[in-house]
Automatic annotation (TrEMBL):
Transmembrane segments: 20-41, 53-78, 98-115
Protein name: DUF4118 domain-containing protein
Record flagged with keyword Membrane: yes
Entry keywords, A to Z: Membrane, Transmembrane, Transmembrane helix
Lineage, top ranks: Bacteria, Pseudomonadati, Pseudomonadota, Alphaproteobacteria, Hyphomicrobiales
Length: 139
């Protein structure tokens, strides 16, 4: 049986080492993009990482997306929040940024998981009828 794909891009089985490696690779690419944004003067610390969390969630599943979130938070704290390349005490603004990112990441992971399950249902041929439902009244 063929596994569902997303527009020709194969999906990775959740909890596999390939899924976690994909999550790490996408976070690394997003860190490079975020570094370029910071070099240009952007103050949005998690901007490049939000789409990557959604992509990891769709391609590799929720466990790899959670792994990516757990990588991103200390990475941003260390590399992109002043003072750069050191862990310093969080100000309330930085803590709020981390909390907001965490909330959005949880919502994106849930949405990605729903999209992943929907793609799996569609690839199996959709939902099957299981007899009569309450909406159809034979009277």
């Amino acid at each position: 049986m063929r596994r569902p794909e997303l527009f020709g891009v194969p999906r990775v089985r959740p909890w596999s080492w390939q899924a976690f490696l994909l999550g790490f690779a996408i976070v690394a690419v997003s860190a490079v993009v975020q570094g370029a944004c910071v070099a240009l003067g952007a103050k949005l610390y998690f901007a490049a990482f939000l789409p990557s969390i959604f992509v990891v969630g769709i391609l590799a599943g929720a466990p790899a997306a959670v792994f990516a979130v757990l990588l991103v938070i200390p990475l941003v704290w260390w590399a992109f929040m002043p003072p750069f390349f050191e862990f310093s005490p969080l100000t309330s603004a930085y803590a709020d940024s981390i909390n907001l990112f965490f909330l959005l990441a949880v919502l994106l992971i849930g949405l990605a998981d729903l999209c992943r399950e929907t793609m799996a249902i569609i690839s199996r041929g959709g939902l099957k009828r299981s007899g009569e439902s309450a909406a159809t009244n034979p009277q």
